[in-house]
Design a protein that fits this description.
Elements: H1 3-20, H2 23-39, H3 43-56, E1 79-85, E2 102-108, E3 119-122, H4 125-130, H5 135-143, H6 146-149, E4 155-159, E5 163-165, E6 181-185, H7 192-202, H8 207-219, E7 229-237, H9 241-257, H10 262-272, E8 293-295
Parallel strand pairs: 1-2, 1-4, 2-3
Antiparallel strand pairs: 4-7, 5-8, 6-7
Helix pairs in contact: 7-8, 9-10
Length: 301
């Protein structure tokens, strides 16, 4: 693939993302939304949204955008790029660009799901039964078990169902550090206790299980401001023993806590191993401004 074409494509996406997440665009979109709600007489909905916005601002602290992305071709390694869509939560986001040295695999519980560019693999019945047909649990199983699933590959790159690939993701392997894992730093929050408060405001996750999980972490002495990662894109060295150990512990912690919020479980797992979050958040500090992808917030459900 011509390097100049890749760079030109990413420059276009960079400009698109800059506009999409600019203050001007967001304010304009919000005004149009409120105008539509007013026409339908949804005044209380507007007030509720304003209250939520004002509450959540307390837990949002952005930083200047930084990246560690090198567009150096990776031709001598076997790489799998994979995603998992369950419960019809997301529709298929077809990659706009595929590179020859990568396989693109999509796991799903939908036997009717079709794709022109993903290699669709229906989740086996025994896995479905093991995780009680729970879409979130099934997603986490595939997301956090690449070492079990892809033994014939050198690297694995996971992307959430909301992520659309627009460029060559294989070059992200250059961002992997000694621990064998590369993620983005959370763009707003650096503390799982703040994330818990944000989840309460936005009504994300099982509040009872989240409360129990946070209380348990407090009892064990987990510190505030330990750091957080965005888990929508994960790059892995499948030959790295520490990465495998972290992912095994991460999945077990996710199952044990029952909240299924992987962003909250990961920092705790790292802390128990005396690993700083910054050691693995080597892709940059804003996943939404990564020029290799576009993130679609509008889920099917």
């Amino acid at each position: 693939m011509n390097k100049e074409i890749i760079e030109a494509l990413e420059e276009i996406v960079k400009e698109y993302n800059a506009i999409l997440y600019s203050k001007e665009y967001r304010v304009g979109a919000k005004l149009l939304e409120f105008k539509s709600l007013i026409k339908r007489g949804k005044i209380f909905t507007i007030l509720k949204k304003i209250i939520i916005h004002n509450k959540i601002k307390k837990y949002e602290n952005g930083e200047p955008i930084k990246y560690n992305i090198q567009n150096i071709p990776v031709l001598d390694k076997k790489i799998v790029i994979y995603t998992c869509i369950t419960g019809d939560y997301d529709r298929v986001r077809e990659p706009l660009l595929k590179v020859p040295n990568c396989d693109y695999i999509l796991f799903t519980d939908n036997v009717n799901l079709k794709s022109k560019k993903w290699n669709v693999q229906v989740i086996p019945k025994e896995i479905m039964e093991q995780y009680k047909n729970n879409g979130t649990l099934l997603n986490r199983y595939y997301k956090l078990n690449p070492f079990l699933l892809f033994k014939e590959y050198d690297y694995a790159i996971y992307v959430d169902g909301s992520v659309q690939i627009v460029s060559d993701l294989s070059t992200l392997v250059h961002s992997i550090g000694p621990l064998g894992i590369a993620l983005h730093k959370h763009r707003f929050r650096h503390c799982i206790y703040d994330e818990f408060e944000a989840c309460k405001i936005l009504k994300k996750g099982n509040q009872k299980h989240l409360q129990e999980q946070i209380e348990q972490y407090k009892k064990e002495g987990f510190p505030k401001k330990y750091g957080m990662a965005e888990c929508g894109v994960i790059v892995l060295d499948l030959h790295n023993k520490m990465a495998k150990e972290i992912f095994n512990d991460w999945f077990l912690e996710l199952l044990n806590t029952s909240s299924l919020r992987d962003q909250i479980s990961l920092p705790f797992v790292l802390w128990k191993k005396n690993i700083q979050v910054e050691q693995i958040t080597t892709l940059g500090n804003n996943i939404f401004q990564n020029p290799k992808i576009i993130i679609h917030k509008n889920h099917t459900k």
